[in-house]
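From the shared-data thread, chain only:
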Amino acid sequence: MKIIGTKTVFQGEYLKVKETHFISESGVKGTWEYIEKGSGIPFVVIFALTRDKEVLLEKIYRVPFQEQVLELPSGMNDMEGESEVKAAKRELFEETGYQAKTIIPVFKCSVSPATSTHEGSFYFAPDVEYVGGNRTDEVEEIEVIKVPLKELVNYVQEQGKNMKISDRILAIVPILQVKGLIKL
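Structure, as tokens:
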């Protein structure tokens, strides 16, 4: 594929919509539209497990869907000089009031690579402890839910009948199992 050119067709505070013109190997001209988010700032997602083997989930209102979505705690690594591990610990605390002493990197990925350049990392936080004082962003409406690890898959499937579910919740489970970090 040969890239002819790229231009920004919309510039918002947090997103850019770009349009790239190209010629495929077979000579076909095309245009691809995609989103750049946060000036390349990566996201962090945390699979947090309490001492009682409960997974922390969040019901969070997402404006694009205009309804609540069930997700894992997550956020942006947007503090200058902050490592991804520190961002994961900070986001977990800010959104849930839980503190992680240990954060284990699990994998890096891109989200919707056909339509976005957004990339990030998944982390496992075993044995998190509630310390209170969570302070969510003023615009985020978050309800923290604890689900027993052994019931997670069934819980997510059942909730999926009534609300949107982030695929991140179950995407990380088999990787955590293969790495020997959890047992369902």
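Helices lie at 84-96, 152-159, 168-171, 173-178.
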